[in-house]
Amino acid sequence: MRIKGDIRPPGDKSITHRSLIIGSLAHGETLIIRPLRSKDILSTVNAIQSLGIDVDTNNEEIWKVHGGRTREPDDVIDAGNSGTTARLITGVLASIEGVSIITGDSSLKKRPMARIIEPLTLMGASIMARGGRFLPLAVKGNRLKGVSYSTKVASAQVKSAILLAGLAAEGITEVIEPAKSRDHTERMLTYLGASLKIDGNRVVLKGQQRLSGREIHIPSDPSSSAFPAVWAAATDGSELIIRDICINPTRIGFIDVLKRMGADIKMVNTRYSSGEKIGDMVVKGHRLRATVMEGVEIPGIIDEIPILSVAAAFADGETIIRDAGELRVKETDRIAAVVEGLKALGGNVDAMEEGMIIKGPMRLHSGNVKTFGDHRIAMAFYILSKVADIDINLDDMECVDVSYPGFFKAMEALSD
Ligand code: S3P
Fold this sequence. Notes:
Strands 1-14-16-15 form a four-stranded mixed sheet. It has a four-stranded mixed sheet with strand order 3-4-2-13, covered by helices on one side. A four-stranded mixed sheet has the order 5-6-8-7. The chain is globular. It contains twelve helices and 22 strands. The protein has helices at 13-25, 39-50, 83-93, 114-122, 156-168, 184-191, 222-234, 253-260, 305-313, 334-344, 375-388, 407-414; strands spanning 4-7, 28-33, 54-56, 62-67, 77-78, 98-103, 126-130, 134-141, 148-150, 172-176, 196-199, 202-206, 215-217, 239-246, 264-273, 276-284, 292-293, 317-321, 348-352, 355-360, 367-369, 392-394. It folds into two domains: 13-217, Enolpyruvate transferase domain (UDP-n-acetylglucosamine1-carboxyvinyl-transferase, Chain); 220-412, Enolpyruvate transferase domain (UDP-n-acetylglucosamine1-carboxyvinyl-transferase, Chain, Alpha-beta prism). The model has no long low-confidence stretch (mean pLDDT 98). The longest helix is centred in the C-terminal third of the chain and has 14 residues, at 375-388. The protein is an alpha/beta fold. The structure holds shikimate-3-phosphate (S3P). Residues 14, 17, 83-84, 155-157, 160, 181-182, 302-303, 326 line the site of shikimate-3-phosphate.
């Protein structure tokens, strides 16, 4: 089915989380313009409220955060399904005097936390975890000192947890990553007045700098935009404009992948807004061809691999995805979920330990697909049903509320 029109997807999830958390640490008021109001974001709103921060979310378009002193929470913080909430907030808890407890839903309780426990402990926090590495965590905040830490995986959540702890610490904090992950934390800290040194995959931050609240405009989420973008790119005769997307280079790897596959994509009207580059994306439908996704490109497309796998299902040839073991520890094991879903519809696909081989173009039939409660799996297979013109019955449609409330309605409105 073709797609035609104009869409402005909801605000970016990563940037909205950070505007709330970093806004809490800044002096004065931070105004968040066009925030994403989704389940994951509401987990962060609740978390910072439990730390004594005054947040006003009554107006849909403008939220207000009165930053200042954070305090020991009087109850357990529930991060729900949100890894970003759990990991970034733990970075903040590391320096809050007293004991804080943070937990999450059944999916988040299975996700690895040793990756933040190790550096935060080196900085001086005391953290106890279920089984030594899973939520719930009990964090005893301490006076922290800066560290130089090389992360094992390229993860913006880990880097951000360390930088947020580093902001409260004495001395210098340095984070070195094996590949560059999304850099919204660095950009927002700079935008609110901190000075950071960035050199490739290395970030250096001096502790105890003062941040000042400001107006932060939230651009459209590129990860949410990737769903209608793939729908348009993979169907002949489609033409779609996606407005105000964040085109931060650490987020738009999926555009490079789609272009390599032969997609007709142009960025127009590019400009800067609140320290981030944004623009409008024009996508036209075209026959796609297979590609390889691997190596340092992976961190920049990690959230888009499910929907890029859908694009690959319609492309000519074998698409190979390698070095993407992190997909196994997302909201669900996304390698297993994509492979199981494609197979249930008659697709030819093989799982590898850290990736998959997708043999296109697939001749698919209608069927049932398990989402495993994962928003991006649900949205990817919905788009697949539209491109292939088949009926797919998803076992959980509500899970899209984690990042894109109103997704199905917005997509229906685009059907040509
Ligand atoms: C995010 C970072 C990524 C990404 C997640 C959001 C963030 O996770 O998958 O959806 O906002 O920092 P990792 O940092 O664990 O790779």
